[in-house]
Amino acid sequence: MRRPVFFNKPSLWLLTLGLAVLLIGAGAVWAETLKVSQPNQQLYPEADFAGTPLGPVPVDAEMNVIRQSGDWYKVEYQGKTGWLHRQAFPQAKAASKFSLPGLLTGGAVKETSSDEVALAGKGFTPEVESAYRQKHPEMNFSMVDKVEANRVSEAQLQAFIKEGGLKP
Question: Distance between CA atoms of 17 and 31, rounded to whole angstroms?
Fold first, then answer.
């Protein structure tokens, strides 16, 4: 039986090459870039806060996302590959626009952060704080703002973890 002319060796080679170019191009289009929007972020060698950081990452730094694992993103930044927690990218989408809840309700479903859950368990959310500030303009929130602005250095955090015998 005679083979069609289309499937000769040069045509098959060109077809394979074209498919490879398409797949590589699609991968480049699907690559995700996220911008850090939270201050005091560190790049870690593993997806774990207990590790020694590779270095700080400034606000507005753009990261090329390699992959995601749970709440951590493996990223490439200034020639380094490491992990950043999703708290660095609060604008990052947690679920696809084709998620089942979104399809059923017709709208996007907002993901709640663990910090929001903890505060909500105590009855205090950003919305509650805002409403409280509006209802009580005479209150001085400078001490609350001061406590919220308090930062702990990476060395202090590591010493606390080690001294307290905490497990990562």
Answer: 21
Rounded CA-CA distance 18/36 in Å is: 36
**How far is 20 from 79, CA to CA, in rounded Å?**
26
Please state the separation of Cα 78 from the chain's center in Å: 17
- H runs (alpha helix) in 9-153: 9-30, 100-105, 114-121, 126-135, 142-149
Measured from the Cβ of residue 51, the count of other Cβ atoms closer than 10 Å reads 15
Write out pLDDT tens, residues 89-138.
876 654 444 445 555 555 555 566 666 666 565 666 677 778 878 888 88
| pTM score of the predicted model | 0.42
Unique residue bearing structure tokens 């990052």: 92
The structural domains of the chain, with segments of one domain joined by +, span 31-111, 113-168
Which residue in this structure is represented by tokens 């090329």? 64
Alpha-carbon span 98 to 152, nearest angstrom: 39
Q: What is the arithmetic mean of pLDDT over 15-42?
A: 68
Q: With cut-offs at 50, 70 and 90, classify the pLDDT of residue 28.
A: very low
Answer yes or no: are the C-beta atoms of 125 and 116 closer than 8 Å: yes
Q: Does domain 31-111 have CATH number 2.30.29.150?
A: no
